[in-house]
């Protein structure tokens, strides 16, 4: 008899989130994918402001589609005591509460982690902030690119002449994933102690942790790693090289044995493998321009497919430099059947399965992207409100 798949690990848990933009929504989306019920509380006047970032996803905002599938949207005015009361009722029955409001806003509403956990000992409450609740930066506005600058990420990204930000919201994602893992750790602790408790994550501290390699290189080696574009600061050859058909291939030689194989099987110059000018990584880095020119000349005479085939055959780590459309058609993602469709107010949208795979368990729950206030009425009814009370909230603009 076939065994039924194990249930999703967070099934039966309820998460309430007063969230916006990326950091908190991306964290709670991970919880929803793993089976939690996530009730997303949004503003009545437009909702999560990420809904308005763009219209690229067939009329919906791409950030919002990415971070908010599988949630129930409830639109409430938290400045009105009646709207705030609804959130408090929801929190009373929740396992997890997450917020990333502007610094001090949650405390003014009584929705900060310390206040909520004091009232509900089993609750896990997460405060996500830009810089943390104390210190001279506590009240500064903290958007992703600003935190990338403060955390030093921009200083090590780009070319020698031009620092650049990462092309993804790295500070938001870092904070989101530490909030997600913090919730999981707190759930384990609650399982053994019966108590929840606050979880604090700041974007700066999350991204500073991700800066560990260049930070330790600087602290203990004296110099910050140079910005080298696609090249590696201390390894050569390690860069992207143009091919004859207009593509680019990135390769990485990690040791001198690999250099000898590259020289013989790809460059067609076996003598370079033992030439003292190139035989060691230190020598190749010292002659980086000449080393890169040798590699570029050889690959520039091959098509992209031929270059990758030759490099793979020589056991040299390599990759095709893909754009986003090529990523969407990546043969590895297709072979592993990673694409699904999620419902949305504009119809089905392609989306990737989350990268956490639980073999033998139920597949990740990839629920619909909600319309603003799509679940308001059902949620209000579930917390005990009558039809007349719901109608009054909607009439007064407290709910939508």
- What summary fits the major beta sheet? 6 strands, parallel
Helix percent reads 25-40%
For the CA atoms, what is the radius of gyration?
26 Å
- By DSSP, the count of extended strands is 13
Q: Give the integer mean of the pLDDT values.
A: 95
End-to-end Cα distance, whole Å, is 49 Å
Structural class: alpha/beta
- What's the helix count? 17
Structure notes:
Helix 1 (about 25-35) packs across helix 7 and helix 7 packs across helix 8 (about 205-210). This protein is of the alpha/beta class and about 400 residues long. It is about 40% helix and about 15% strand. It has helices at about 25-35, 60-65, 80-90, 105-110, 115-120, 145-150, 170-195, 205-210, 210-220, 255-265, 280-285, 290-300, 305-315, 325-330, 330-335, 375-380, 385-395, and strands at about 15-20, 35-40, 70-75, 95-100, 125-130, 160, 160-165, 195-200, 240, 250, 315-320, 340, 350.
